């Protein structure tokens, strides 16, 4: 069986708009650990400058943003954090998880 970093690589957000835009909007969503292999990405590409930047979280949230919709965890923001975790052989990521019903 072939090992995968993510459950799936998607393009776009298949869930309804939740209205959270800025890091301040997400601040009330508590962070928790999520497994990388349970995440579906909402972006197919990653800017290497963001991945390699030492201060990539300086101006944003320290946690990735994940939306749980219909039982699926979608990685909305923080692809660079998730890839960095995978490169460091960490199977989990700390993320703010917003559950939509």
Descriptive account of the structure:
The protein has 101 residues and is of the alpha/beta class. The chain has one domain: Conserved hypothetical protein from pyrococcus furiosus pfu- 392566-001, ParB domain (Alpha-Beta Complex). Helix content is 18%, strand content 31%. It has helices spanning 23-26, 48-52, 79-87; strands at 8-9, 31-35, 39-41, 64-69, 72-77, 92-100. A hairpin with a 2-residue loop joins β4 and β5 (72-77). The protein is globular. It starts with 7 loop residues before the first strand and ends with a strand.
Give short descriptive properties of this protein.
3 helices; Transcription regulator of the Arc/MetJ class; single chain; Conserved hypothetical protein from pyrococcus furiosus pfu- 392566-001, ParB domain; 6 strands; 6-stranded mixed sheet; alpha/beta; 18% helix; VapB-like_prob
Low-confidence stretches: none
Number of alpha- plus pi-helical segments:
3
**Biggest β-sheet: strands ordered side by side in the sheet:** 1-3-5-4-6-2
Largest sheet: 6 strands, mixed
CATH fold field value = Conserved hypothetical protein from pyrococcus furiosus pfu- 392566-001, ParB domain
- Helix/strand order, N-terminal first: EHEEHEEHE
CATH-derived architecture: Alpha-Beta Complex
Top CATH class: Alpha Beta
Helix vs. strand class: alpha/beta
Strand content: 25-35%
Q: Looking at this structure, what is the CATH superfamily?
A: Conserved hypothetical protein from pyrococcus furiosus pfu- 392566-001, ParB domain
Q: Name the average pLDDT.
A: 88
Net shape = globular
Rounded Rg: 13 Å
- CA(first)-CA(last) distance: 33 Å
- Share in helix: 10-25%
| Domain count | 1
Protein name: Transcription regulator of the Arc/MetJ class
Organism: Xylanimonas cellulosilytica (strain DSM 15894 / JCM 12276 / CECT 5975 / KCTC 9989 / LMG 20990 / NBRC 107835 / XIL07)
InterPro entries: VapB-like_prob
């Amino acid at each position: 069986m072939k090992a995968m970093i993510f459950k799936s690589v998607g393009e776009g957000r298949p869930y309804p708009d939740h209205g959270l835009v800025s890091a301040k909007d997400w601040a009330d969503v508590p962070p928790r650990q999520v497994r990388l292999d349970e995440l579906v990405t909402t972006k197919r590409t990653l800017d290497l400058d963001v991945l390699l930047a030492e201060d990539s979280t300086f101006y944003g949230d320290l946690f990735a943003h994940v939306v749980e919709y219909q039982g699926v965890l979608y990685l909305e923001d923080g692809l660079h954090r998730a890839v960095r975790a995978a490169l460091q052989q960490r199977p989990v990521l700390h993320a703010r998880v917003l559950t939509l019903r």
